[in-house]
Amino acid sequence: MAETSINPHVGDGNNAAPSPLDWLIRRPMLLAWTVALGAATFFWLFGQPWAKWAFKYPSAWKWKISKEISAGMEWLMNEATFGLFTFRELTRAISWVIEKPYEIVLSLLSTGFLEGQGSQAIQIIPPLSWIAVLTVVVLLGRYVKDWKLGALLGGCFLYLVVFGQWESAMVTLSSIMIAVPLGIIAALFVGLLGYRSVWVERAITPVLDLMQTVPVFAYLVPVLIMFGFNAVSAMIATMIYAMPPMVRVTMLALRQVPSEIVDLGTMVGCTRRQMTWKVLIPSAVPTLMIGVNQVIMLSLNMVIIASMIGAGGLGADVLASLRSLNFGGGIEAGFAIVFLAIALDRLSQAMAEKAPASHGDGQNEGILKKYPYTVFCTAVALITGIVGTSWGVSWASWIGGPSWGMYSAAVQDYPEAWTITTGAFWSDIIKHINVNYFDYIDAFKGMLLTNFLVPFKRFLVSLPWIAVVLLLGLAGYTLGRWRLACLCMVLSLFIAVVGLWEKAMITIYLCGISVLVASMIGMPIGIAAAQRDRLWRVVQTIIDTLQTLPSFVYLMPVVMLFRVGEFSAIIAVVAYAVAPAVRYTAHGIRQVDPQLIEAGIVSGCTPFQLLTKVKLKLAFPEIMLGLNQTIMLSLSMLVITALVGTRDLGQETLIALTRARTGDGIVAGLCVAFIAIIADRLIRAGAERMRTRLGLQ
Amino acid sequence: MADRAEKLVCNSVWKLFGAGAEDLLKRTGGAPTVEQVAEGGLIGAVRDASFNVLEGEIFVIMGLSGSGKSTLVRCMSRLIEPTGGEIIFDGNDLLKATANEMVELRRHKMGMVFQHFALLPHLTVLGNVAFPLEVQGIDRGTREERAREIIELVGLQGRESYYPRELSGGQQQRVGIARSLAVEPELWFLDEPFSALDPLIRREMQDEFLRLQNVLHKTIVFITHDFDEAIRLADRIAIMKDGAIDQIGTPEDLVVRPATDYVAEFTKDVSRAKVLSVASVMSPAPRRKPAGGYGGEIPVETKIGEVASRMSDGDKPFAVLGSDGKQVGQVTKDAVVGVLIQG
Ligand SMILES: Nc1ncnc2c1ncn2[C@@H]1O[C@H](COP(=O)(O)OP(=O)(O)O)[C@@H](O)[C@H]1O
Ligand SMILES: [Mg+2]
Questions:
Q1: CA A624/CA B162 separation, integer angstroms
Q2: Architecture of domain B274-342
């Protein structure tokens, strides 16, 4: 109401031209912002000489919390005890629980079952032959969905065989096969507790927020210290990384079970346990499977990072070749991870969609009819196993000569002579590009750096921290009143107080530029795709695939072309974060109520007016959420780009990891998380207000 | 009917949703007014409901959506804890039963059918029907045998290995009914069991339901928002409005003597001939047989609509017989036509 009376067309003749000051006073928030920004600018320009402390946080005031955390960690490892057992014994017990099943799977897929220790160990039973694994995978695809899926899975695994990635891939697969189920079970239990008790849910929600925003490197350190440099540590870190979404999905899925179903459980007299396992969880399975898929994808995303604390396999291969700048080898191992990711993603998605087999009574039939796949796979495993043993090989040579013997051995281990490698090819391409275009690339890079990037970075770093904290508080107050204002100020103040302000500003600079570029690329694509069904389907397939790629994959080609440095980091982050910008923009526009669009058409909008005046306006809240996702993904990727030499908080966590300094890593990690949380809460609150104003609630 | 035992008695049952509901009830001596409930920011889903359900009868609770029917029936099975009042089942105070006693009661004495069927999606028809028995720990052979019997009773034989999603709505609700009967409950709750079905199917299911009750003689609390359904099925009906019960009576009572305008609004379009029995238009039998003799003999609870079709071929009155087979009166063609003309 107040707004219409200010509108000059509506206002009565007496005060047709209100003075600008009047106009401002009627909008207290706008006034506050004008004053605050003015004061901040003034302070920034002239405050330096008499308030140095406001520009560079004095180190004397620094809160040395990281030392305390490190000390606490030491105490935990050396002295902490629960009465009956010490903390160290607890970590050993956890190790054992994870290590035993891992050893079995690893034996089955990679090393074979051994007798004896170390180098004197004798293989009693060989691992599954590559033919057997391939058969299992193809039939699994057929069983879960159809032959097409079987062929896709077979193709992915065949790549591993033919390109000589088999052994590493099986090591990686083994750790995935342990980390994923354990992570799922753990998440299921935590989610169940959260479902049963509001208090537990209130307690774990912020922890989940932190776990999803704290960069991985930060908790690699404590895991490393607690569990050592080995595969178990890697699996634990993977589980911690992959669990949070599953916990959330579990709580959501259980809440979504219709109340009638819960009533039914009570009415038939279920005990609590029966209610959980016979009613709630089976009814929630379709939603739970979404979480399972996420756990798998996140675990694969961790493969390379986990190799920093002792996971072998493909991750270690990629990391090694990245470090030695052997790009060709790195690309093949990288593709191996991608194919593994695609295979497991499609498989788990098909499993989620698979309804229980249709009716038809499968009673009293032979074991072959009942379990045809299992029987066939077992047979293939046994036959190839026997043919491939030394006994089988000598028998084959005796029958058909040495060439038969060779084939027989190839059944067990795919011969190295038959593998293909394209490593040299990729290295050549990169070399070619670098030789011929290096100057141009470098000039381009230099131009952007000196003209845009560096000035922006200087500007951010020069801002007085106290002003930024207060402005964030004002932003919080504008969008979400005191609660949000306090949250923003406390979190940003923490960053200053622990002495990481400058690094944080560099993180914000890198992230900000990346998000800006990613949005500038992604949003137009999203807008274009949203209005053309055909194009949208193509774009959707592409971004779906892009999002299944582990984040590291983006890093490799960038480093090859642009060398290490902030510029490479930005490009990798942009590549990684474009997908959500496209997705949310398109999604927001596509979900605008068709009636409103028709209303627009009927009132004579041109297509351009329709887009700008109807669609984009209504899609705005959704697009803001897309921006939010873009920021979150950028931050998570940014941390990984620390490997290519940025000077920000990510680097800080990485350094802490290489020097095994728990406190430093955790504090820097928390700072990253706090940046993410501030951005997330502000944008969400903004989107919410926007939505209320548009009446989309 | 008065000779039947009271199976379930509700005495001023209250259910108020919201914080501080019990306080309000205490402060107002257990009888807050509508205004007091609203002031407390509470929702009076069930307000002072009192009635009794007799052994073997079909007791229908009828009311529009949001009138508190589901809440009331859930209080009776303690799926929802009533805020105040007393519920007596087989002479025992249900609200004093411990959690374990409730589990036992629900396992053996109560069955419930849900509006949206509430079938477990991961179990077959057989698995769903056997589920209450599975929960009790009964071995697979026994429970599946029992389940097959009931599946046959509701006419679903041959569909045992289907999954719920492969069945039509009507078939799904048959599964729901079969499941609720698997434990041979004494008290059978049905919360709008047919509301989610198409009208034709609904009709069929109502007939099926009456057929089952003829065989089983359960004590039934049946919820519906459809007055015609209530009339068709009920021995007695309770009309609910805004959480309170307006009137309780046989269909005939409600039609002839609606207690409030609200009830009258429902009954005004009901065809009287279908509801009223000959008892309501019967005249005392003359001491001597009428000259032309009687056109036939009819039991006292016969609906007028049925008599009308038999009377069409003559003017003779019909003799009305009591439950003991002795004549209690007679009904003339004029009296019947009088009702039919009223509509
Ligand atoms: N859990 C609950 N919390 C708050 N209000 C409820 C709850 N359940 C039901 N109500 C309210 O109680 C009233 C009666 O609901 P219900 O018993 O479901 O009605 P019916 O089954 O007759 O449609 C409605 O106004 C409904 O909004
Ligand atoms: Mg209801």
A1: 46
A2: Alpha-Beta Complex (3.90)
